Amino acid sequence: MKFGWDAKSNINRVLKSWRSFDDPSPGEYTYGVERHELAQSFIRKKGVSTFRSDPWKTKNDVEYESGNLTYTTYRITATEEKATYFFSITNESFFSILRLSYTGVLQRSTWVPKPQQMCKRLRDRVLPHDTCGSYNVCGAYGLCDMDTSPNCVCTWV
């Protein structure tokens, strides 16, 4: 699976949600990689950000390969011409699904042969993983803290 933006072909591949639980037509949410000053991944609802990943760690052209576990490999590429994420299964006993739910939750599920079950993971979690993981949840001058109630604190004095 590969998605992201490529300037040469002017193609931006994104993952789209279903319209509803039982309607597979295109929904309101997309997940993709975007190149700004630094590349990042976003979940958007009708074009408006609901989740944003941490920026990828470099401004320079980079091709980063990691995740060479017993069954997966992934590659992140961020150059002036493209920002892409590529994921593949290297062991045919495993399979993996990256899905964006109709409610905007991103989740990777991987079939593990032993103990023969689906393991739900995206770095051992779904995205966004809590209230503070949602984009702009506390507004322009707010700070979100999951250990306080309410979660949002105004930083404007």
TrEMBL record:
Keywords: Disulfide bond, Signal. InterPro entries: S_locus_glycoprot_dom (IPR000858). It comes from the Eukaryota. The keyword Protein biosynthesis does not apply. GO terms for biological process: recognition of pollen. Residues 51-154 form the S-locus glycoprotein domain. This is S-locus glycoprotein family protein. It comes from Arabidopsis thaliana (Mouse-ear cress).
